[in-house]
Amino acid sequence: xxxxxxxxxxxxxxxxxxxxxxxxxDWIGDSWAVLFSHPADFTxxxxxxxxxxxxxxxxxxxxxxxxxxxxxxxxxxxxxxVQDINEYGCKYAPTNVQFPIIADPDRKISELYDxxxxxxxxxRDAKGIPFTVRTVFVIDPKKIIRLTLSYPASTGxxxxxxxxxxxxxxxxxxxxxxxxxxxxxxxxVIVHPSVSNEEAKTLFPDFxxxxxxxxxxxxxxx
Length: 222
Fold this sequence. Notes:
Layout: E1 14-17, E2 20-23, H1 24-28, E3 32-38, H2 44-55, H3 57-61, E4 65-71, H4 75-88, E5 101-103, H5 108-112, E6 134-139, E7 145-151, H6 159-175, E8 177-178, E9 189-191, H7 197-203, E10 208-211, E11 214-217
Parallel strand pairs: 3-4, 4-5
Antiparallel strand pairs: 1-2, 3-6, 6-7, 8-9, 9-11, 10-11
Helix pairs in contact: 2-4
């Protein structure tokens, strides 16, 4: 199986989820998608992450992003776990998990997306099968993988950063720009190298040339 890289087509699959059966590409439709995996149900770090994603549901929705979790447990475990997550909530407010969580007890989807922890001998279930690491895939409406992140099992993800990258990708696709270090929405952006100075005068009237290869411009977006 070829390794997945940025620019690869996200593999399609069928799965059972807490929101019913899905075919992944059909489920994505014309949206962006964030697929994020978990080592197991009823684990503390995962519980905080899913609660946070539920809390941030409006932030994903306004960016036309669907979110979907995956954990290597059966569906009935997921349903019980969602109750725990909603009861726990998060440090900000109670939560209500509405996004689907994929049941992947046989690790078929985890293996398809190369999300299994083959290195850590302690990250195994009772049968000795590797659990998933905390992997994130950002997938665009063309089903192309635009971002991959992998966290160790001990470290919770930063969903502010994931949303920041989605903003960068969407702005870049629309406006022919890239984003500099530590960029956040509202900051100046970089004029893409493929845009000539003559084009930039039309596209970005207020752009600044710092170096022939480094040009920045304000960019106001909603």
